[in-house]
Each structure stands twice: as structure tokens, then as C-alpha cells.
Amino acid sequence: MSTQTPQCLIIGAGGVGVVTAYSLFLNKGSTVSLVARSDYDKASTTGYKLSSCDYGEVLNWKPHHLFRSVEDAASSKTFFDYVVVTTKNIPDGPTPVSSIIKPIIESNDKVWKERADFKEQKKTTNVVLIQNGIDIENEIKEKFDLASRQKSTTVPQVALISGIQLISSTKVGPCEIAQKGHDHLTCAAFDKNDEISVKTAQNFISLYTNPGQNQAHFDSNCRYTRWKKLLYNSSINTLTAICGLDFTRCLQFGTAEGSTEFEIVRPAMLEIIDLAKKIDDITIEVDLVDFFVDITRKMVYTPSMGVDIQKGQLMEIEVIVGNVVRSAKAHHIEVPHLSMLYNILKILQGKLKEQRGLLKFDELNAKIVE
Amino acid sequence: MSTQTPQCLIIGAGGVGVVTAYSLFLNKGSTVSLVARSDYDKASTTGYKLSSCDYGEVLNWKPHHLFRSVEDAASSKTFFDYVVVTTKNIPDGPTPVSSIIKPIIESNDKVWKERADFKEQKKTTNVVLIQNGIDIENEIKEKFDLASRQKSTTVPQVALISGIQLISSTKVGPCEIAQKGHDHLTCAAFDKNDEISVKTAQNFISLYTNPGQNQAHFDSNCRYTRWKKLLYNSSINTLTAICGLDFTRCLQFGTAEGSTEFEIVRPAMLEIIDLAKKIDDITIEVDLVDFFVDITRKMVYTPSMGVDIQKGQLMEIEVIVGNVVRSAKAHHIEVPHLSMLYNILKILQGKLKEQRGLLKFDELNAKIVE
Fold it and tell me: Which of A58, A85, A243, A268 would staple A235 via disulfide (CB 3.0–4.6 Å)?
């Protein structure tokens, strides 16, 4: 094993990404690079300001390296051991995750080939997806043909690490982050039978944890954790997006008999529980249905997709509910409530795309112009 | 039988109501009164302008009588034989149809009692609902206890006539109506076994028809006609409202595999066909599913509820889909697609009510303030 400091590249410099980069930086176990994009100039000069419930007021912070773009990072002749993706995951948008990380996968391949000492180390490109949803690893697996990489001796392997983060952190201005909820990161191998990924997930936690400040722990089964988070996201998050309202209003504007709760949200949640059992033999506790409905019953709160649609931003519909519905269909399991939520959101995503100029609709021929 | 000219009162002076009033007026079979509301002053002076595909350019037209409000009509000491309601039917809004017609039901009762000659004629207040939806007569039946009126000798009976109009007519300015689609009115007794209502429906058609210009015909079974119209309205109209888009975009923004059509619209339509059969033993032809989807596939068109939500107006959700879902529930028939459309629309109706100041939401206590 090399004793060289691992190189981490964080892609996505929003509320989550900057705190993630700072946590790795503070730990001192790795060299931290951040793709800062539109904040690059300010980040390079004055640095970041974090108002963090975990780390206090942090002023003028800079990671070890800053890049303006993923392409710039790819040109740096660095082998990035960890490619940590904290962007939204929108495969139906202009920048699916596979296209975001492609320059780094390819530059790592090149750097590895050029440096003889690396070959002996059997380097691995470890992709850590700190993102919502389920089956998000499949896009990467297919695009980069990970199966053949595993057998190859001419390109580095790619290990896929699942990161699920509970955090409330928002970018409130250029290079300004307000973190209001404690950071709790759960890491797992997407493939729990892949020893390299399991080891990498554990290593990443040791690079990430700052005892007494943030929390990170290893998760032996990310499918359970992801299904559990979907219980909330596929039902409540999706509904608030369709309605463009906080969930409390969605609940209260239902009929007196509780139509929102009993005709939409709970049936959709029970479909998730049913799917987790039938597809993965995973038991999601039914009590969680009450828990998730109750925590937001009295708190006027709009989850991520509801916020996205209000801001006119594309939503993570494919990873949060599209993959679920496709999976159900492949297994011949009926999920009428999730399916309706998904298929309506699909239309609304099209509406957002047209508003953002990502899609042009030809009214005369009633067709989307490619 | 009296040879006296029947008195018709039209409530609702929008695109449909004004053409309806004009059709009755031109027929010369009745005395036509119109509740003009905000257009009253202009209507009383310069009158209406109709640009009509049935009647050509009609300038400075006035009905026999104009009223500013239903209350003013009720104060006129007239017994209105026909109370023709062409407003939207929104029982969950501030003016359900029963409250709109209440002053006339009551003033007719009073006029009838005061005039001895009327008693001998066994006068009937004929309520003609030219409106969308199904089960819309029940609200009237219950509010005015029509069953006991039928046995009474101290109040006039109330007959309920179903009017279903195919017309494309819009109020484009104060007292200005543009009628682009030919008027085709279908009348029936809501209760096909009630002889008085059947006779009245037929009489109304003879007062309404202007041969060679408009079309009106008697319908022996309004349930068939209403279920058939719901096939379109409960599925396509509701979906465009949820999405705030024309139906063509709803279709095209679905996935490549036609998700809007095959996962939302057609399943919802098949639920309507199933309900009509099971509840009323009425066969709605399955071919109509293709017909309704196909007519709007290439035509960028937003149906009424989609227009309402874009304008911030309350939608006819209860009569178009709420009654359907309640009926299904009462008969223990599963209608998951219609139920989702309805329960989402219920939330959006609450959002519209809050926007219009018809509902106040107390965020602190997470409650609707009554």
C-alpha cells in the first residue's frame, strides 16, 4: 500500500458540496480539490464563508486546490482517488452524472497509464455519489462498462460508493454557505459483495469524520437506507412538487377526511414498502409511514423537489421515483399511486425544460423539436 | 293548460349564457330575462354584441328583461317557469348552484301563493342545468327537498332538466361574445321516470331551437351523455389542470413510450367506462377512448379546467371528478387513476382558494382558518 495522501475531488460546490469538502479538509487525511464553477474567482481570492452548526463561523476558507470546471481538474495530471459527486442527479437533464464525471474517469485512465509506479499500486477510481434516489449506480456501471474494467489490467478499476447525507445546508450567496442541520453521512458499497468498494467506503469514512463535529458511519446495506429515504421522497417530495406547495398545505387542503394523507401519501408509501420487500427482500418498518407523515404535519416545510419547481429548476424525478416505477414494472408489481406521481412529474419536467430553453415545442406540428 | 308565454331566466351571462338567452329570444316562444351582473349597465344601454357562427354579427341586442342580480330578478314578482343556469358548477366554492338559484325558488313559491290563478295551473319551477359533470342534480334535490315538494299542494314542484351543450363560445369583453363552435344542446330529464321533467325537457327544446341555426334535441338518457362527456373531462381536462398545460404538451412531454397516454389518460378513461357499466349499466363505447385522445393529439388546446387554473379561477373538480370518485367508493369500485387526479386537484383548488382570499392558512398552527 502506498502511504501517499489520497486525492479527493468534490464536484458540486453547493450547500452540500462545500461542507463535504471542508469536512475532508479539516480531517487532514486527503488533498482536497473542489470544482467551484461560477464561484471560482471569488473562491480563489477571498475563499468561502461557512456559517455551520458543526464547524461554527469559518472565514476565507480555501481547499487545497480549486478548479473552474471538471475539465480543468481533468487537465491537472492528478490521479483523483475519490471523485465525490454532490450535484443533483438528473439523468434526463443536460448533465447526467456519467457525463459530469467522464473527464475524470478518462484523465485518471491516462494518468495511470503514464505513471509506471501507479500500475503496481492497482489504483482504483472511487466514485462517491452523495445523492438521492435508488439505482443511481446503474448509469455509471453501463456508461463505463465497469464489469470489463474489473477484469482489465490496462485501465484502473472504478469502485462505486453510496453516500446518503442528512444535512440542511444551503448556498445563500456566492461562496457563502449556511449549514443549519448537523451533517450525518452514511457510506456503503453500492455492491455489498464487492470487497474493494466495501473497503473504499470504510476508508472514505475515516477521511471524512471529524469527531465531535460531524458524523459518518459505514452502512452494510445501502439498499435499505435508500428505500427508507424513498419512503419520504417518492411520496411527499413528489407531491409537493406537483402542487408547488409545502407539505403542510398539501395535507390541509385535502378534504376533511384526510384525502391527501390517506388517498395519496400513505398508499404511495405502502407501495414503496411492498417493492422493497418483493424486489430486495428488505423490510421497511411500517411505523416509518406515520413518522414521515407526522414530522411534517405541523411544520410548514417544502422538500427539495417542491423548492426546485418553485425556482424553475429541473427535478430529480428519475432517481427518486422514475427508477422505482420502472423497477416495479420490470417485476410486474402494480404501483398505481407512484406511477401517477411519476407520470405527472414527467410532464412538469417537460414544462420546466421548455421554460429553461432546454426543449423547444413546435405547436404547429405538435412535436418536441430535437 | 295556460297559453301564457313562459318566463325564462338565464343565470350566468358568459359565453354560453348569452348565446343561450339569444337562442330563446330569437325563437320568440318565451319571455327572456338575463342576470347580467357586472355587464348590467352596458347591457341596459348599448346591449350585447355577438359574433356568432350560428347567428352572424348581432349588434345592440337586449333580452326582454335584464337584472343586475338574481336577487333583483327574485324581487320582480315574476314567476319564472324556466330557471336556466349556465354558470360553472362549483359546490366547494363560495356560490354553489343551490345558493345561486335559492332566491328564485323562494320567490316563485311566494308568487305562486299570492296568485290564485296560478294554483289552478299547478305551476312548476323548471330548473335547467346547462353544466358539466355528473350527479349535479343531487345538491338541488337535497337542498330544496324535492321529494316532499312533489307531494305538496302548498308549494310549486321543481323539475330538474339536464342540459349538455357542445359550443365554443367565449366572453371576449364586457357584453361581447365570440361564438366559434356551433351550438348543439341536448336536454333530458335528470330523472327519466319523472313525466313532468321529461315533458319540460321537450318543451324547453321547442322554445330553444332555431331551425337552420342552432341544434337542440331531446335525450332520453342523460346519464349516458354525461358519462360520455366525463370520459374526456375526468381524464384529459383534469390532467391539463394539474399540469397547467395544453393537452398536446401533456402528451408530448410524457416519455417516449407514451406515458401520458398509456399510464394516465387511457387508464382513467377505462375507469369511467367501468363505472358507467357497474353503476348505471350504461355501455360507453371503448372506441371513444381513441377518439378523445386523437382529436387533441395534434391540436394545441387547453380545456376548461386547464384554462381556469391558468387564470387563477376555481375549477369544477367536484362535479367533473369528485362525484365520480365518491360514487366509485360508495360502490366499492377501485379507481386509482381518477382518485389520484381528484385528490391532487383538491389540493390545487385549496391553493387557488388561498390565492383568491377565499381561504386563510395559519402557518403557525398549520391549519385552515374557518
Answer: A268
Q: Do B344 and A243 touch (CB under 8 A)?
A: yes
Residue B299 forms contact with A (CB below 8 Å)? yes
What is the least distance, in Å, from the CA of B5 to any CA of chain A?
Answer: 46
The amino acid occupying position A229 is K
Whether chain A has a CB inside 8 Å of the CB on B362: the answer is no
* Cα separations in angstroms, B12 against B38, B68, B222: 11, 11, 22
What is the per-residue pLDDT for A123? Answer: 87
Architecture of A224-355 per CATH?
A: Orthogonal Bundle (1.10)
Rounded mean pLDDT, B212-241:
95
As a whole number, mean pLDDT of residues A281-310 equals: 91
How many A-B residue pairs are in contact by the CB < 8 A criterion?
118
B343 with A244: Cβ contact below 8 A: no
Q: Which residue of A has its CA nearest to B297?
A: A366
* A253 contacts chain B (CB < 8 A): yes
Q: Which of B245, B263, B344 sits opposite A339 (nearest CB)?
A: B263
pLDDT given for residue B3 in this prediction = 57
User: In the numeric block, which cell numbers belong to residue A23?
Assistant: 469536512
Determine, for residues B300 and A255 on separate chains, whether the beta-carbon distance falls below 8 Å.
Answer: no
What does the pLDDT average to over A200-210? 97
> Is A295 in CB contact (< 8 Å) with chain B?
no
The fold for domain A7-220 equals Rossmann fold (3.40.50)
- Contact of A201 with chain B, judged by CB distance below 8 Å, is answered with no
Instruction: Give contacts of B 139-198 with A, CB under 8 A.
Output: none
- Bridge partners (DSSP) listed for residue B52: B56, B179
CA distance, residue B149 to nearest chain A CA (Å): 32
Question: Whole-angstrom Cα distance, residue B290 to residue A100?
Answer: 42
CB B143 within 8 A of CB B15: no
Cα dihedral: B252, B254, B255, B257 (round 10):
-80
pLDDT digits (tens, 9 = 90+) for B144-193: 999 899 888 888 999 999 999 988 899 999 999 999 999 999 999 999 99
Q: Of A245, A248, A350, which is closest to B351 when you measure between CB atoms?
A: A245
Q: List the single residue in B245, B337, B368 with the smallest CB-CB distance to A347.
A: B245
| Average pLDDT value for residue range A267-275 | 98
Q: Does B315 touch chain A (CB under 8 A)?
A: no
Mean pLDDT value across residues A33-37? 97
Each domain of chain B, given as residue ranges in start order, spans 7-220, 224-355
**In the prediction, which pLDDT does A2 show?**
46
Q: Does B366 touch chain A (CB under 8 A)?
A: yes
- Tell me the chain B residues in contact with residue A339 when contact means C-beta distances shorter than 8 Å: 263
| Sequence-ordered list of residues with C-beta below 8 angstroms from that of A186, at least 6 positions apart, any chain | A163, A164, A165, A216, A217, A218, A219, A222, A225
- The residues near B98 (Cβ < 8 Å, ≥ 6 apart) are B139, B140, B143, B144
Residues 6+ apart with CB under 8 A from A24: A8, A10, A30, A32, A84, A207, A208
Element holding A162 (H helix, E strand): strand A157-173
A323-343 confidence digits (pLDDT tens): 999 999 999 999 999 999 999
Q: Give the mean pLDDT of B326-351.
A: 98
Looking at the complex, report in whole angstroms how far the Cα of residue B270 sits from the nearest Cα belonging to chain A: 14
Q: Which residues contact A3 (CB under 8 A, 6 or more apart)?
A: none
C-alpha cell of residue B44: 341596459
**Phi then psi for A326, rounded to 5 degrees?**
-65, -40
Tell me the per-residue pLDDT of B66-115, one tens digit each, with 9 for 90 and over: 999 999 999 999 999 999 999 999 999 999 999 999 999 999 999 998 88
